[in-house]
Amino acid sequence: MTEMTDRSASTATSGGPVIDARDLRIWYGTDRGPVKAVDGVSFTLRKGEILGLVGESGCGKSTLGRGLLGLLPEGAKMDGQLRFNGEDLLALPKKQMFAKRGAELGMIFQEPLTRLNPLMRISEHFEETLKAHEKRIGKAEIERRSMEVLRLMGIPPTRFRSYPHEFSGGMRQRLMIALSLVLRPSFVVADEPTTALDVLVEAQIIRILHDLRREFDTSLLLITHNLGIIAEACDRVAVMYAGEVVEIGDARDVFAEPQHPYTRELLRSTISLASTGLNFIPGAPPDLVDPPPGCHFHPRCPDAMNVCATTHPIQREMKNGSRTQCWAADLRNGYAQDLTPEQTTPLSREEISVADEA
Amino acid sequence: MQTKPEPAVVGDDLIEMSELEVHYELRGGTLSRLLGVGAGTVKAVDGVNVTLRRGEVLGVVGESGSGKTTLGRALLGLAKSTRGTITYRKPRAGGEHPEQVVSKMSARELRELRTDLQMVFQDPHAALNPSMSIETAVGHPLKIHGIASGEELRKRVAAALERVGLSPAEQFMRKYPSDLSGGQKQRAVIARAIILDPEVLVADEPVSMLDASVRAKILQLMLDLKADLGLTYVYITHDLATAKFFCDRIAIMYLGRIVEIGPTDEIFADPKHPYTKALLKAIPEPDPHKVVPRDLPRGEIPDAASPPLGCSFHPRCPEAVAECGWESRDLRNLLEEHWTRQDPSVYESEQGLVGDLGVLDKPQKRVTIGKGADSARVRQLLDRARAENPSEPLWRGVDEVRETEDGVEVVFHKGYDPLLRPSGGVEVACVLYPEPVTPEPARPEDDRHGS
Ligand SMILES: Nc1ncnc2c1ncn2[C@@H]1O[C@H](COP(=O)(O)OP(=O)(O)O)[C@@H](O)[C@H]1O
Ligand SMILES: Nc1ncnc2c1ncn2[C@@H]1O[C@H](COP(=O)(O)OP(=O)(O)O)[C@@H](O)[C@H]1O
Ligand code: SF4
Ligand code: SF4
Ligand SMILES: [Mg+2]
Ligand SMILES: [Mg+2]
Question: What is the ipTM of this complex?
Answer without folding.
Answer: 0.90
